[in-house]
Specification:
By secondary structure, this protein is α/β, with parallel strands linked by helices. It has nine helices and eight strands. The chain is globular and about 45 Å long.
Length: about 270
């Protein structure tokens, strides 16, 4: 099992500083924020390589791939095309895909937007396949997105898209809100579960909340999961949409990441 973290959780800290911290803690890699304005793919690859880290996956900036306006959807899909091109510089990272974060209701009808979502993901997966990359659709909770909020909806989306390079990303934090039994959700996703994000119930480090992460680890073992585990944790504080909390938050975050990795190493099968 390889362990990584989402780079966005360190805010505007330079990637080199984040990589140094992760290397010191003992992580294997990162889910790299797909922000070409911050660094080129070559620059990011060099930084990660210098610290013995791998780009395990890519996470997108916000892009609305199910918006009723065709021009908005086209712009969003074009962004994913650029993200895929960005990903070709690395060792075949998974490309994460999701709807626009913080849009929690449809603008048109939900049926229309679901159809546009399928159409957009089909285009994204087709372009990714040409680049020999896999795509994972990330399941977000209802307070962050209005489409695909649980594993059953994600399985349906994968079937509707019909692309063999499309899998599912389930996140312990989101599952804590949306799933009656997160471990069962992981087992049901089965061979289509290609990426697992984790944080405790409060999106802090493992052991700082009440989620039964051990049951989820056992479920991953049961399905033979051999992709990465990505930590997406925050320091405590208000505003869940920014990692930047009270003074000293990066030190707190580092401790949470250290404790979480230690927990996983002790409990991995």
């Amino acid at each position: 099992m390889k362990y990584g973290i989402c780079t966005w959780i360190f805010g505007n800290q330079p990637l080199a500083s984040t990589a140094k911290t992760l290397s010191e803690i003992g992580y294997d890699g990162v889910e790299l924020l797909g922000a070409p304005s911050l660094y080129s793919a070559r620059e990011a690859k060099t930084i990660l390589s210098d610290h013995g880290l791998q780009a395990l996956s890519l996470t997108p900036m916000d892009a609305d791939i199910s918006h009723p306006d065709e021009n908005v959807r086209r712009e969003a899909i074009d962004y994913y095309y650029r993200l895929i091109e960005f990903g070709t510089e690395f060792d075949e990272p998974l490309v994460s895909c999701h709807g626009l974060v913080k849009r929690i209701e449809p603008i048109a009808t939900i049926e229309e937007e679901d159809a546009w979502l399928v159409e957009s993901v089909q285009k994204i997966t087709e372009r990714a396949k040409g680049a020999n990359l896999k795509v994972v659709f990330e399941v977000l909770n209802r307070y962050e997105a209005h489409q695909v909020n649980n594993h059953k909806q994600a399985i349906k989306l994968v079937k509707d898209v019909g692309a063999d390079n499309l899998g599912i990303l389930l996140d312990a934090y989101h599952m804590n809100i949306e799933e009656k039994n997160p471990a069962k959700a992981l087992r049901t996703a089965g061979e289509k579960l290609w990426l697992y994000h984790t944080a405790d119930s409060n999106r802090e480090g493992i052991g700082y909340g009440h989620s039964d992460i051990l049951a989820q680890v056992k479920a991953l073992a049961d399905i033979g999961y051999d992709y990465a585990t990505i930590l997406e944790v925050n320091a405590p504080g208000y505003n869940p949409f920014t990692p930047e909390k009270a003074e000293g938050w990066r030190d707190i975050l580092k401790q949470h990441l250290t404790d979480s990795l230690k927990w996983f190493k002790q409990n991995q099968n």
